[in-house]
Design a protein that fits this description.
binds nicotinamide-adenine-dinucleotide; about 15% strand; about 280 residues; six-stranded parallel β-sheet; globular; alpha/beta; Rossmann fold; 10 helices; 11 strands; 2 domains; three-stranded parallel β-sheet
Length: about 280
């Protein structure tokens, strides 16, 4: 079984991106800039944002964090997004989710200029991705996609099962696999026989949020299994895949932690650079 080393793959991607940023600096005399808006005090959000800043700096991007208290008015955030949309030194804008209840997530996502939407959540980017046009692609599914392609460069005709249909993970993952000519089944909480669906798959991507949902006998021999889940349990952080059982059957499997997670941030940096490049055309 191939243990997919997301840390290593993310490091390799960051090295490529660092070189790209240095070339862009030479060509345009400036570097892509990422601005993150962090609202409130949630510990996981603070950790994610800190890591985003660390790796953005590492590859040479300009990185800013704008922090607001939990009680900030929605209008202040919308005005700030408007200002960042107009600021040519800002290539990418990310508003860290989740947001406090009084702030409308849809309004915030739609306020970001789609050309600076490094999360790929704006409806224009969602539409472009599903139409097969160029777009920002949500970072976690893009990371999964790159890991799958490393193992199996030609996905044409493969049967893929995506477990979970969130806008963040499952739906964009489905689009990326469709684009590669996979036959894709998207499953969710109302799916009748998840085990039977998984057993047909050459590729499984699990993005559910249920610890170790995908069991060893749900996976046929030689399946590539990508585990997006991050679940806190008594025995520590585990994924949505029962790692020990599934590793006996799978052709390749991502660990949790150290699989998809590191790729997510590397893909955010890639999206920032791609937004910068598109803005230079
Ligand atoms: P979500 O809660 O938005 O969506 C979960 C999906 O799972 C839903 O579509 C639901 O229908 C489906 N589901 C629920 N129960 C199911 C069941 N019994 N069988 C099949 N499907 C079922 O979750 P999300 O935001 O997509 O996140 C999923 C997991 O991925 C979480 O553990 C989250 O922490 C993790 N995550 C990891 C990263 C990363 O970088 N590795 C990024 C984002 C999210």
């Amino acid at each position: 079984m191939i243990l997919i080393d997301g840390k290593k793959e993310a490091e390799l991607l960051r090295q490529e991106l660092k070189k790209e940023v240095s070339d862009l600096k030479e060509k345009y005399n400036r570097v892509p800039g990422l601005t993150v808006i962090l609202i409130g005090d949630l510990a996981p959000s603070k950790i994610y944002v800190r890591n985003k800043e660390k790796f953005a700096n590492e590859v040479g991007l300009k990185s800013d964090i704008i922090r607001y208290s939990e009680s900030i008015e929605e209008k202040v955030v919308l005005d700030k997004i408007d200002e960042l949309n107009k600021n040519a030194t800002v290539s990418g804008i990310l508003v860290q989710l989740p947001l406090p209840k009084h702030i409308d997530k849809k309004k915030i996502i739609e306020a970001i200029n789609p050309l600076k939407d490094v999360d790929g959540f704006h409806p224009m980017n969602v539409g472009n991705l599903s139409s097969g046009y160029e777009s920002s692609i949500p970072c976690t599914p893009m990371g999964c996609y790159l890991l799958i392609k490393k193992i199996e460069p030609n996905l044409s005709g493969k049967k893929a099962v995506v477990v979970g249909r969130s806008n963040l993970n499952g739906k964009p993952m489905t689009q990326l696999l469709l684009k590669e000519n996979c036959t894709v089944t998207i499953t969710h909480s109302k799916t009748k026989d998840l085990k039977a669906e998984c057993l047909k798959a050459d590729i499984i991507v699990a993005a559910v949020g249920i610890p170790e949902l995908v069991k060893g006998d749900w996976v046929k021999k030689d399946t590539i299994v990508i585990d997006v889940g991050i679940n806190k349990t008594d025995k520590g952080i585990v994924g949505d895949v029962a790692f020990d059982e599934v590793s006996k059957n799978a052709k390749a499997l991502t660990p949790v932690p150290g699989g998809v997670g590191p790729m997510t941030i590397a893909c955010l940096l890639k999206n920032t650079i791609d937004c910068f490049k598109r803005s230079q055309i």
